[in-house]
């Protein structure tokens, strides 16, 4: 137990260092962008004097290290700065877009586990047969299709041609739970690639587990087949897929931006795209920090869980 605590403390310190690196990297990259918000706000034919006045009013003429220290000092308090375009706190943008994004990610993860594990187990139980070949082929083909192209295909077929589902979330606001039909296509797009990845991992782990000596021994002792498959083989097959699930949540942070833009969902992805279009650097910085720190925390949690439940595998790695 003391060894686990020592390892967890070291891993927490590493996570804090990674979060600090994210903050520095986000600030450095946004500083390296050509132009600034003053140019964007000055109009189509900006006057140099007007640009200089706007830059001074927004403190953009201050040294970069001063602005970095002031910005970083407010992050632990939830102060991400003020929008250059509207004057509103960046935290309000994050709060407004958090609900739809969290809803999409939660629905995707809730469906990902039963669907991905179920397909993986089905393919493993029918190894080499039609069901296995069908699951393997479909998951491989679906994984190769980009989210944007797959979303356009679904909109064309199910929204425009058949008229079964709305093509976008325009007019529904942020209360998407009151309009579940608007969530179907976005969730399917977000779900497709993670399901394919998880199903293939579970299939491979299940096949290896079913071929292991302890499963053969259990069968010789007359243990029922269902208990062998789901009580012994499946837990060992899911173990390598557990960390992949955390990595999948990381990927959702990127995939949700594409999906929200495609289906016009007012989430964090849409807020980020609007901020980029308006050259609203504080909003871009705040969202990038939120995404980056969330990724660090999720990976830290996955490592802690893996260390707690599979210490031997962790030491071997």
Distance, first to last CA: 19 Å
- Provide the β-strand percentage band: under 5%
Q: What is the H-and-E element order?
A: HHHHHHHHHHHHH
Mean pLDDT: 77
Q: How would you briefly describe this protein structure?
A:
This protein is an all-alpha fold and 317 residues long. The protein has helices spanning 2-32, 37-41, 48-57, 64-74, 90-125, 130-143, 147-161, 181-210, 213-220, 225-263, 268-277, 281-309, 311-316.
SSE map:
Blueprint (H helix, E strand, L loop, with lengths): L1 H31 L4 H5 L6 H10 L6 H11 L15 H36 L4 H14 L3 H15 L19 H30 L2 H8 L4 H39 L4 H10 L3 H29 L1 H6 L1
Protein traits:
77% helix; mainly alpha; 317 residues; disordered C terminus
Describe this structure in words.
The chain is globular, with a radius of gyration of 24 Å. α6 (130-143) packs across α8 (181-210) and α7 (147-161) packs across α8 (181-210). The protein contains 13 helices and no strands. The protein has helices at 2-32, 37-41, 48-57, 64-74, 90-125, 130-143, 147-161, 181-210, 213-220, 225-263, 268-277, 281-309, 311-316. By secondary structure, it is mostly helical. The model is unreliable at 311-317 (pLDDT under 50). Helices cover 77% and strands 0% of the residues.
